[in-house]
Design goal:
Layout lengths: L6 E6 L10 H21 L5 E4 L1 H10 L1 H13 L2 E4 L13 H19 L5 E4 L9 H7 L4 E4 L13 E5 L5 E6 L7 E3 L8 E3 L2 H15 L3 E5 L10 H13 L3 E3 L2 H6 L10 E3 L14 H27 L6 H14 L2 H4 L5 H32 L26 E7 L5 E7 L5 E3 L8 E5 L9 E9 L3 E8 L13 E3 L2 E3 L3 E5 L6 E6 L4 E2 L7 E6 L16 E4 L1 E10 L3 E10 L2 E10 L5 E9 L4 E8 L3 E9 L2 E5 L6 E2 L3 E7 L5 E8 L4 E5 L2 E8 L20 E10 L6 H12 L3 E4 L10 E2 L3 E2 L4 E8 L5 E8 L5 E8 L5 E7 L4 E7 L7 E3 L10
Parallel strand pairs: 1-2, 1-10, 1-11, 2-3, 4-5, 5-7, 6-12
Antiparallel strand pairs: 6-7, 8-9, 13-18, 13-39, 14-17, 15-18, 16-17, 18-40, 19-20, 20-21, 21-22, 22-23, 24-25, 24-30, 26-27, 27-28, 28-29, 29-38, 30-37, 31-32, 31-34, 33-36, 34-35, 35-38, 36-37, 41-44, 42-43, 43-46, 44-45, 46-47
Organism: Oceanispirochaeta crateris
InterPro entries: Gal_mutarotase_sf_dom, Glyco_hydro/deAcase_b/a-brl, Glyco_hydro_38_C, Glyco_hydro_38_cen, Glyco_hydro_38_cen_sf, Glyco_hydro_38_N, Glyco_hydro_38_N_sf, Glyco_hydro_57/38_cen_sf
Family: Belongs to the glycosyl hydrolase 38 family.
C-alpha cells in the first residue's frame, strides 16, 4: 500500500445565496466572502481558493467591479480557481435536462468570456442526490470530472471516495465524494439528527488520509467556513502552514489539480453505474408551487424559443436572445438546491415565486410576439377583397358568413391530433382544405350572461408548424359523425377503454382495456391517501419510504360536466377533514388514456397526500423519467424523483407484458411497491424544519389551493418514447391565434421538421448564442440505439441532418445560416466537441 499519496487541501466557502435567509443577505455574503478570500491571498502567498457558480462572479462584476478586477488577476495567476461550470449549485433531480444544459451553456461561456477558461470539473457539493444522466450532461458541458458530498456513507454504502461514475447511457466521469464535510463543521456519527461540531484541521486531515490509505488513493480535504459563506479563516490557514512543514504530502490545491493527477495513472478506478441517491427524499415534493413554477417556466421558455426560431426562419423577425437569457437566468438561480428543493424559509420561497413569474412573463410576451408575427403573415384573404368591419359580431371579424381564420401552432417535432378550445360560441369549423370538422359546445372560463360558452374542435397540426382552421359564428355544417363516447356520473367509455368510478368515495374502481381485454386495476385506484410524517423534517432526512397511512379522502360528490362527441368529463369532489380534492376525469374520443385536472385545497400540517394506483401486474419493475433519459429501478417502495412520467411494467394475469404509466405536469415524487404506484401530490411540512422546535412561529407549506394535471396511460407504459412525447404535449400545449382577413406570404399550413424515427425527439430549436445559425437538440427517448436517423428542416432552407444515436444519447446540431457551411455536431456550449 502506498502511504505517500498527496493530500490536496481545498480552500473553499460554501455559499448558499438563499436558505435560512433571503437573497438580499446571501448576495451581501458573497461580496464579504470574496473579499475575505482576497485578504487571505495577500496574507498567505501559497493559498489557493476554489469557488463555483458563475452567478456569484457576475454579481460581483456588476455590484463590486473593483473586487472583480482583483479576482481576475488571481485567476490569471492560478490561485483563484473557478469551478463547477454551472450558474449555481442546483438541485440535481428536479430541473429538466434542458435546464442542466442552460446551467452549463450560460456559465461556461461566461467563464470563457471573462477569464478565458472552461471549467472541466463539475461541482455540486451540497445537492441532495444526483440523477443518472449527469455524466453525459457534464461531458457535453465540457466537464469530465465531478465533486459531490451527498448522499453520504450511511445513505449510499459501498462507494469509494474516488470512482468512475457511469451514467445510464454509458458516459463516464471521474468522481470524488467528499468525506465528512465540505467545511469546518461535521456531523457527529453521521446520524440524521446531526450534532454539528468543529474538528481540528489535523484531526480532519488524519481521518481523510486514513481513508486514502485504505483505498490506496490520493484524497482531497475541504476546509473553510461554509453555508453562510466565510471561507478559510486565518486560524485554519496558520494551522495548515504548520502542518505542511511537518508533512510533505500536504499541499494547497484545487479539484482541477486533483483530477489532473489521475490522468496518467494506469491503476483502475472502481466504477459505479446509475444515479447517486438518496439524500432528502422529502425534497422531491416539498413546496409544490415552486416545483410547478419551475416546470412551467422551463417549458414556456422552450416553447417560446421554438416559436421565435420558426418566426425568424419564415419571416423578418428579430430573435430576442438577450431577453430569453435574462429569463433563463431567473430560472437557473431558482434551481439552487435549497430553493427548488423547498428547504428554505418562507420569505425566500416567496421571493423565488416572484422571480419565476418574471421568467414566465418574459417567455409569454416573447412567444406571443412570434406567434402573432407569423399568424399575421399567413394569407387568409386569397383572391377575395374583404374590408375589415365588426358589423356582424362584437368579437369575431367574420364577414358575410365567410368564417374567421384561426391559426393553430404545434411546438413539437411530431404531428399532433388534439382538441382546440376557442373562446367563442360558434356553429361550425372547417380545416385548411375546407372540410367540416366535428365540434362540441363547452363551458367557458367566465360568467357573462349568455356569452359563457366556448367551442371545442379536433385538429391535426403538423410538426413544428401550424395549420389554419375557419370558425363560423352562424354557419352550420352537416357532418355524419359517430362517437363511441358514453358517460354518466359513474363511468366514462370510448372505443378503447372503460373507466368506472365509485360515486360514494370518488375512487376509480376499474379501467378495462378493450384491445387486450384486460382489467388493469387490482383494487380501487386514484385513491387519495393521507400520510402522517410528523417525525420527518423538511428534507426527509433518513426517511426513504412514506407509508404511514392515517386517512383517505372520501365522502365524494360526482357530477357529469360534459358528455359530447369529442370529450366527456366527470367531476369528483372528495373530502378529508377541512381539505378538499376536486378531480375532473376527462375521456376523449379515440384516445386510450384518461386526462385528469386536479384542484386540491389543503388545510393540514405534517401530512403528505398520495394518489394510489394498485395495478394488476406481476413481476413488476419501475421506470422513472430523469433529465433527458429514464432509469429502471426495483419496485421496492422507496420514494424516488421523476420528471414528467413514471411507469410500472410487468405481466398481466394472462402473461402479457404491459406497462401502466402516469404522465404529469409539475409533480416529481413517486413510490412503487410491487404493483402499487403512488404519486405524491402535496406535502405540508414546516418551512426549513431540520428537527428544530415547532411552535406558533412555524409556517407550513402547501396550504390552500393548488392545481395540476396528469394523464393515466393504462397500456402504453412500456413505450418510453410515446410517454416522452405525451409528456411534452401535456407540458407544452398547442397555441392558437384568432386572426382576421389579410394578405400574406405564408401558406395556410406549414410543417417545420420531419424526423425519421419516433424515438428521436426534438427538445430545443433556437438561435445559437453567436447569432450565426440555428441550434437543434434531440435526444433518444426509448433507450434503443438507432442508426440512419434523418432530420429534414424545411424552415432552415431544406437542410438535412443524418446521424446515428446511441441509447439515451443527446445530440446538439449547429445549422449555419450560410448554406455553404456544413452542419456540425457541437457541445452544449455551442462549440465544437473537439475543442473542449
Amino acid at each position: 500500500m502506498n502511504k505517500k499519496h498527496r493530500t490536496h487541501l481545498i480552500g473553499n466557502a460554501h455559499l448558499d445565496p438563499v436558505w435560512l435567509w433571503r437573497s438580499t443577505a446571501g448576495l451581501a455574503e458573497i461580496k464579504a466572502t470574496f473579499q475575505s478570500a482576497l485578504d487571505r491571498m495577500a496574507e498567505f502567498p501559497d493559498f489557493i481558493f476554489t469557488c463555483s457558480s458563475a452567478y456569484y462572479y457576475k454579481w460581483v462584476e456588476d455590484n463590486a467591479p473593483e473586487m472583480f478586477t482583483e479576482i481576475k488577476k488571481y485567476i490569471e495567476k492560478g490561485r483563484w480557481i473557478p469551478t463547477g461550470g454551472m450558474w449555481i449549485q442546483p438541485d440535481c433531480n428536479i430541473p429538466s435536462g434542458e435546464s442542466f444544459v442552460r446551467q452549463m451553456l450560460y456559465s461556461q461561456r461566461y467563464f470563457y468570456e471573462k477569464f478565458g477558461l472552461i471549467c472541466h470539473t463539475g461541482y455540486n457539493v451540497d445537492s441532495f442526490g444526483h440523477n443518472g444522466m449527469l455524466p453525459q450532461l457534464l461531458k457535453l458541458g465540457g466537464m469530465n470530472s465531478y465533486v459531490f458530498m451527498r448522499p453520504m456513507d450511511h445513505e449510499l454504502e459501498g462507494l469509494n471516495h474516488l470512482f468512475q461514475w457511469e451514467g445510464i447511457d454509458g458516459s463516464r466521469v471521474t468522481t470524488y465524494k467528499i468525506p465528512f464535510s465540505y467545511g469546518e463543521w461535521v456531523g457527529e456519527n453521521g446520524t440524521n439528527k446531526e450534532v454539528l461540531q468543529t474538528v481540528s484541521m489535523k484531526s480532519r486531515i488524519d481521518d481523510v488520509k486514513e481513508i486514502g490509505q485504505n483505498q490506496d488513493t490520493a484524497m482531497m480535504v475541504f476546509y473553510g467556513v461554509g453555508n453562510h459563506g466565510g471561507g478559510p479563516t486565518i486560524r485554519t490557514l496558520n494551522d495548515i502552514e504548520k502542518l505542511k512543514n511537518e508533512d510533505e504530502t500536504l499541499s494547497y490545491s484545487s479539484p482541477k489539480s486533483y483530477f489532473e493527477e489521475f490522468k496518467n495513472i494506469a491503476k483502475p478506478i472502481p466504477v459505479h453505474i446509475g444515479d447517486l441517491q438518496h439524500h432528502g427524499s422529502g425534497c422531491y415534493s416539498a413546496h409544490s408551487q415552486l416545483k410547478m413554477l419551475n416546470c412551467q417556466a422551463e417549458n414556456r421558455l422552450m416553447s417560446a424559443e421554438k416559436m421565435m426560431t420558426t418566426a425568424a426562419s419564415l419571416i423578418s423577425y428579430d430573435y430576442d436572445n438577450s431577453s430569453l437569457k435574462r429569463a433563463w437566468e431567473e430560472v437557473m438561480f431558482n434551481q439552487f438546491h435549497d430553493i427548488l428543493a423547498g428547504t428554505s424559509i418562507k420569505k425566500a420561497c416567496d421571493d423565488a415565486v416572484e422571480s419565476y413569474n418574471e421568467a414566465l412573463s418574459i417567455a409569454s410576451r416573447l412567444r406571443n410576439s412570434a406567434l402573432q408575427k407569423v399568424s399575421w403573415a399567413v394569407d387568409t384573404l386569397g383572391e377575395e377583397n374583404i374590408s375589415l368591419s365588426k358589423e356582424d359580431d362584437w368579437i369575431l371579424w367574420e364577414s358575410e358568413n365567410k368564417g374567421t381564420p384561426v391559426v393553430v401552432f404545434n411546438p413539437h417535432s411530431f404531428p399532433i391530433c388534439s382538441c382546440i378550445q376557442v373562446n367563442v360560441d360558434i356553429k361550425g369549423v372547417t380545416d385548411n382544405k375546407g372540410n367540416a370538422v366535428a365540434i362540441q359546445k363547452v363551458r367557458g372560463p367566465f360568467v357573462n350572461r349568455e356569452d359563457k360558452y366556448n367551442t371545442l374542435f379536433t385538429g391535426n397540426i403538423p410538426p413544428l408548424g401550424y395549420s389554419v382552421f375557419w370558425i363560423f359564428k352562424k354557419k352550420e355544417f352537416n357532418i355524419s359523425t359517430t362517437s363511441s363516447l358514453s358517460a354518466s356520473e359513474s363511468h366514462l367509455e370510448n372505443s378503447h377503454i372503460r373507466v368506472d368510478i365509485d360515486p360514494k368515495n370518488g375512487w376509480i374502481t376499474g379501467i378495462f382495456i378493450k384491445k387486450s381485454k384486460t382489467q388493469i386495476l387490482k383494487t380501487p385506484a386514484c385513491v387519495p391517501l393521507i400520510i402522517d410524517e410528523t417525525e420527518c423534517d423538511t428534507w426527509g432526512h433518513g426517511v426513504y419510504e412514506f407509508r404511514n397511512v392515517t386517512g383517505k379522502f372520501g365522502k365524494a360528490n360526482t357530477k357529469l360536466l360534459e358528455n359530447g362527441p369529442l370529450r366527456s368529463i366527470v367531476r369528483v369532489t372528495s373530502y378529508y377533514e377541512n381539505s378538499i380534492l376536486q378531480q375532473d376525469f376527462t375521456l376523449y374520443e379515440n384516445k386510450c388514456e384518461l386526462e385528469v385536472k386536479s384542484r386540491i385545497d389543503l388545510r393540514m400540517k405534517h401530512k403528505m397526500v398520495k394518489l394510489s394506483f394498485p395495478i394488476d401486474l406481476t413481476e413488476t419493475s419501475a421506470v422513472y423519467e430523469i433529465p433527458y433519459g429514464h432509469i429502471h429501478k426495483p419496485a421496492n417502495g422507496q420514494e424516488e424523483a421523476a420528471q414528467r412520467w413514471v411507469s410500472v411494467i410487468g405481466k398481466t394475469q394472462k402473461g402479457v407484458n404491459l406497462g401502466f404509466a402516469i404522465v404529469n405536469s409539475g409533480k416529481y415524487s413517486y413510490d412503487i411497491r410491487e404493483n402499487d404506484l403512488r404519486m405524491t401530490i402535496a406535502r405540508t411540512p414546516a418551512y426549513a424544519d431540520h428537527f428544530g422546535e415547532r411552535d406558533d412561529f412555524s409556517e407550513y407549506m402547501d396550504q390552500g389551493v393548488q392545481e395540476f394535471k396528469y394523464v393515466i396511460c393504462p397500456d402504453q407504459g412500456a413505450d418510453y418514447a410515446f410517454l416522452s412525447r405525451r409528456a411534452q404535449e401535456l407540458n407544452q400545449e398547442l397555441l392558437h391565434i384568432i386572426e382576421t382577413y389579410h394578405k400574406g406570404k405564408l401558406p395556410s399550413v406549414y410543417s417545420g421538421i420531419e424526423i425519421s424515427h419516433e424515438n428521436i425527439i426534438l427538445s430545443v430549436y433556437k438561435r445559437n448564442e453567436d447569432n450565426t445559425g440555428t441550434i437543434l437538440r434531440c435526444y433518444e427517448a426509448a433507450g434503443i440505439s438507432t442508426t440512419g436517423v434523418t432530420i429534414l428542416l424545411p424552415g432552415c432552407k431544406q437542410r438535412k441532418i443524418e446521424s446515428d444515436f446511441n441509447h439515451n444519447q443527446i445530440k446538439t446540431f449547429l445549422i449555419p445560416d450560410k448554406q455553404s457551411d456544413e452542419i456540425s455536431e457541437v457541445s452544449f456550449l455551442e462549440m465544437n466537441l473537439d475543442t473542449l
